[in-house]
Amino acid sequence: PAPAAAPVPSRSDRPARQKLTFKERRELDEIVARIAASEARKAEIESLLAAPAGGFEAMKALSDELERLTQALDTDLERWTELAERE
After folding, report:
1. Are 87 and 20 in contact (CB under 8 A)?
2. Which residues have C-beta within 8 Å of that of residue 76, sequence separation ≥ 6?
3. Of 80, 81, 87, 82, which Cα lies nearest the Cα of 18?
4. What pLDDT is attached to residue 15?
5. Backbone angles phi, psi at 25, to 5 degrees
6. How buried is 31 (Cβ within 10 angstroms: 0-12 exposed, 13-18 middle, 19+ buried)?
7. Pick from 28, 41, 36: which is nearest to 80 by CA?
8. How far is the C-alpha of 13 from the C-alpha of 85, rounded, in Å?
9. Cα 52 from Cα 83, distance rounded (Å)
10. What are phi and psi of 4, to 5 degrees?
11. Share of residues in the chain with pLDDT > 90 (%)
């Protein structure tokens, strides 16, 4: 006898791939713009920190901004990944 064929999953057995809603699409576009701006600012801050021209307070402020920016960038990249996988 011929070997039994593997069962073909029906449409209802497959996980539904939900597309992005209009609101999520807009959010994705905004995140992409924020990521680009954040990466540009991060590079700018890093170059300013590499060649310190100000006093301690200025360097501390830049360092604090870099930390906040990095955290926000990580959050945006995580959300971007979630949305981009469903696109």
Report:
1. yes
2. 31, 34, 35, 38
3. 87
4. 54
5. -60, -45
6. buried
7. 28
8. 20
9. 39
10. -70, 135
11. 70
Q: Name the residue type at position 42.
A: K
What pLDDT, on a 0 to 100 scale, did the predictor assign at position 22?
Answer: 96
User: What separation in angstroms does the CA of 63 have from each of 44, 48, 59?
Assistant: 12, 10, 6
Can you read off the two tokens belonging to residue 23? Answer: 């609101």
pLDDT in tens, 52-70: 788 899 999 999 999 999 9
Q: What's the start-to-end Cα distance of the chain, in Å?
A: 45
Structure-block tokens of residue 8: 């073909």
**Three-class SS of the chain:** CCCCCCCCCCCCCCCCCCCCCHHHHHHHHHHHHHHHHHHHHHHHHHHHHHCCCCCHHHHHHHHHHHHHHHHHHHHHHHHHHHHHHHC
